[in-house]
Amino acid sequence: MKRSVYSLVLMDDVIKAVDKEAYKLGTSRSNLINQILAEHLSCVTPEMRMRDIFDSVSEMINNSFHIQQQRSASLMTLRTALEYKYRPTINYKVELERSPDVYLGTLKIRIRTQSQTLINMFNNFFAYRVRLESSLLKEKGRSGYVYELSSGSFQRKLFNPSLSDEQTGEAISRYLNDINQSIQTYFAMPQDFGKYAPGFEKNYRKMLDEYVL
């Protein structure tokens, strides 16, 4: 969204209040003023769009996720606990682009553990998941699958589904629910995951028939 520079003359007390609120929200003075004016004048800002998307995710995500409070309008952070000894957690971060084009944003998933065994399991799962996603997305004509996989950390660019904010939130929540269920099953029974993998692959393919994300 195009921006221009303008000069405003404001009272010192107003600026102090704006700066205080901007700090609390993790944004800049100019961005907060822009949001306040846009809301008052019924203009849609990137922050409003992202908030609507995340509100939709919050409504549709399953209860195994704990949504953490965040200060940035472009970022949503969630976590789940694995059904595994010591109950290690998996952190999910969805960061949206202010002006999405090909990509809607970036998903980052990280396991919180010092166990090399669990880190290796995490990496093995996502090596499998990358092969699955890149293959099925290519069938949908999406060849620009961008990802990074390192020790206990995975991230990928999410394709822009070009849907309404509510539908985009639904697409993100379905993807997170799907991948979390797969991870939970893999860690619960890694030796038997091959029996369940076709079902998860079928679910993912079905989701892609509705949302290419």
Explain what this protein looks like in three dimensions:
By secondary structure, the protein is of the alpha+beta class. The protein folds into 2 domains: 1-43, Arc Repressor Mutant (Orthogonal Bundle); 46-210. Helices cover 50% and strands 18% of the residues. The protein has a 6-stranded antiparallel sheet with strand order 1-2-3-4-6-5, covered by helices on one side. A hairpin with a 2-residue loop joins strand 5 (147-150) and strand 6. Helix 3 packs across helix 5 (165-188). The protein is elongated. The model has no long low-confidence stretch (mean pLDDT 89).
What distinguishing features does this structure have?
213 residues, alpha+beta, Arc Repressor Mutant, 6 helices
